[in-house]
Amino acid sequence: MADSVMLFPQLLQPTAALKTYAPMSVKFWENQETALDGMKELADGWFARRHLGAQAALETAKRIGEAATPFDIAREYQD
Questions:
Q1: pLDDT given for residue 13 in this prediction
Q2: CA 28 → CA 25, 31, 35, 38, 62, distances in Å?
Q3: Contact residues for 63 (Cβ-Cβ < 8 A; gap 6+)
Q4: Counting CB atoms within 10 angstroms of each CB, which of 2, 30, 56, 79 has the fewest?
Q5: Would you give the distance in Å from CA 4 to the centre of its chain?
Q6: What is the DSSP string of 26-75?
């Protein structure tokens, strides 16, 4: 075991290089969190719009199904 300690002495104590890279690592993960928050906001907006569109299409399909004449069907489709 003493041999492995002597082979990798830099693992036993932080080096200047590791201390230099630590802030960059923290910034990377902060940026990841910001990006994920932005993607969640985008996805939530898309799902909300998609839900509204699906509801409107469902209501239109119901009105078309209840239409009595081809003119009524065309009018509901245009609405």
A1: 61
A2: 5, 5, 10, 15, 51
A3: 76, 79
A4: 2
A5: 45
A6: HHHHHHHHHHHHHHHHHHHHHHHHHHHHHHHHHHHHHHHHH--SHHHHHH
Phi-psi region of 64 (alpha: psi -120 to 50; beta: other; left: phi over 0): alpha
Query: Which residues are CB-contacts of 73 (< 8 A; sequence separation ≥ 6)?
Result: 64, 67
> For the chain, what's the residue count?
79
Rounded-to-integer distance, Cα 47 and Cα 44, Å = 5
pLDDT at 14: 65
DSSP state of 13: S
If the chain, 79 residues long, is cut into consecutive pieces of 10 residues, what is the mean pLDDT of each piece? Answer: 55 67 89 97 97 95 90 85
Q: pTM to 2 decimals?
A: 0.56
